[in-house]
Protein 1
Amino acid sequence: MTRSLLVISRQAPWSGLSAREALDVVLAGGAYDLPIGLLFMDDGVLQLVQTQDAAAVQQKDLTANLKALEMFGIEDVFACGKSLAERGMFPGNLNIAVRQLPQEQDISELIDRYDHVITI
Amino acid sequence: MATLHVLSHSPFADSRLTSCLRLLGSNDALLLCGDATYALTQATAPLQALEDRVNTFELYALEEDIQARNMTVPGWVKRVDYAQFVELSIRYDRVNTWL
Amino acid sequence: MAKRQQKARIAGFLLSSAWEFFIIAGVSLNEHPMKFAIALFSAAHAPSSRRALLFARAALAGGHEIVRLFFYQDGVYSASANVVAPQDEQDIAAQWREFVSENQLDGVVCIAAALRRGILNEEEAQRYQRASANLTAPWELSGLGQLHDAAQSADRLICFGGP
């Protein structure tokens, strides 16, 4: 019986290693063909800002990792609508395609669909 | 399907409690441990936020943290030790620790 | 398999009924043995590292199994062999080592997270020409595949981190 895992990524792209290491968990799961979901919420949605320039702060550009999600078969990628709106972001101008969850209830229902959850 | 959410950050320094309360489902539970037990401090906004939702989810607090902080907690908070923490993690379908 | 679990299983076979076994062993009547995967994200000095250890001990005491301990992010620091705790304080890094050894558990430290944070075993210290190693048995360095493997085997994945 294959168990599913939801990773909730809540940190901004360069606030330490959290964003990077959350993505690593997801991509590793994809490499093993496991059912993995990824939800960006709170500051995690800031990873989705378009045209970031990580080189300006000599940090790792996570956009390549985000674009790799699709290649690794990770299709269940979500973003909290309220977190986006709070940060002046809109589903139309993000660096990857995500499914927007407009209500908090959508998030608790999403969590309910997975066997395990890791909130980084 | 129900989730046990676990918090350990102080609610005064951090937004995890607020975010968690937003998405707590009606069958979910919340376990406060470490500095998150400060949310039970009398006459504070976090306690009020919890009290407002008192009948919508199960609220637990880790006994050792209440004791360490010499807190007086309301009767509607269920205090648990580690054996009970393990039981809770089994009773609920999954555990979501807000790291 | 941990010694306590072995003893519990033997006791179970010897007693005439499962009911008596549960009452005598003090196991909650609501539970059958569960498989836990425990992931730690914080250093030995963090309260959450001690909390994870106490939870892990309680899980075994409750007759459950720990399929793997996986140390990720700052959790790799909880596996450091070089932590020096003051004499009048808890040495959580040492207690983790003892816990894993005594119960013959699978203690895995994520290699990518460890390297980034300067936690290296002998092999990696040699590979990267670093002055010394600070990760020893019972800890193994391995990849995130081990976290996923543990999550596949476990009934519950519990994470500990932060304060």
Protein 2
Amino acid sequence: MELLSFGNTGWGDELLIATLMTIAVSITALLIGFLFSAIFTPLKLSNNKFLNFIANSYTTVIRGVPELLVIYLFFFGGSGAIMYVASIFGYYEYIEINAFITGSLAIGIISGAYSTEVFRGAIQSVDRGQFEACKVLGFKKHIYFLKVIMPQMLRLAIPNLSNVWQITLKDTSLISVTGLVEIMRQSYVAAGSTRDPLFFYSVAALIYLMLTFLSMKLINRLELNYSRGF
Amino acid sequence: MDLSLMATSLPKLLSAAIVTLKLLSLALFFGLIIGLIFAILRINKNPIINKFAYGYSYVFRGTPLLVQIFIIYFGLGQIEYFRTTFLWVIFKEPYWCAIIAFALNTGAYTSEILRSAFETIKPGIIEAGKSLGISNNIIFYKIQIPVAIRQSLPAYGNEIILMMKGTSLASTVTLMDITGVAKYIISTTFKPIEVFIVAGGIYLFMTFLIHNLIKYLEKKYSF
């Protein structure tokens, strides 16, 4: 237990900060994922074959390729791509992007592919009559989407979004390969310097379990709130 | 775009694909056995057995696969006593550690898939068996298990694809699977996009094959 004390002798405070980092990356990644699904879900549902193709390639490729490979692409390719763009504007110095940004962007793109599928499914399971009723009543397109389709869609999407959240939370452990100090990286460092990997990885596992447990409780409450009236 | 690099890295990545496939098939084989055992424990009426099986699947589904591999590979070797047992022959190899971690992980998910399949079997099928005078054991092995397996095929197909992506984590414990080789080529050539296209293409092709295999099986065993 001494190993987990706070201060200079223990790893408690370091692990706490690392836990907060994991939560921060997960939430950022989830939000980036929502942004991506806000772009790709309409493309998936559109009648244009070409737009469908773009959205389908995004979700198929990302969901068919290991997360670790995507992270390596961003980690090794990220600064190269930025430097290439900068060189067009006449800037030739080395640019290093923050591990937090690359990490949450990589996980966000992965999470976006899953949440796109969730939102597509949810919108498609909203009763067709609702769409028709809105058209008959002559609602403007964005109003009928926000006021009629969205609330019904969210109710259907939340159980599956909680899976997406769990996947995203667990995927953040992979960012440790890029050196961002989250739970896994911190346990790796602690395990290395104390030569006690069994203890620190078990602590890491317990922290992850706690995070998934607490977030499930929170999401269940959210689900109840959105299912009012059904 | 460096086409010659893509051409030279393709055979290297393809030979690494054999490692990935070996890891995947062994993990799925052991995982299916573990999953079936724990699914049967889950539907047991005894609350202690039942809770134990639930705890197993909860822990392995609630923690990242990376932690599980690290605990098994780095953690278990730390126990002095453990190193003297015959199990150490298996656990000192990163290859077997990875397979054990994958099998335990996929076993947890498989047990959940099979449990829900057992629970959704129509009671009429079991009643029909009973009214024909078939014994409970035979009903279980010859009726419930085959029907449950058929019902869980679509979900299990997804699990196979998730596991295939999971095998990429073997590269973190020094194994040279597709991702391991891809990372090696990227870090020596600094051409991440080309390598990603080739390695990703191989993974996508495998996903495509698994997807179609499951579709074929679903059709074959549909009723």
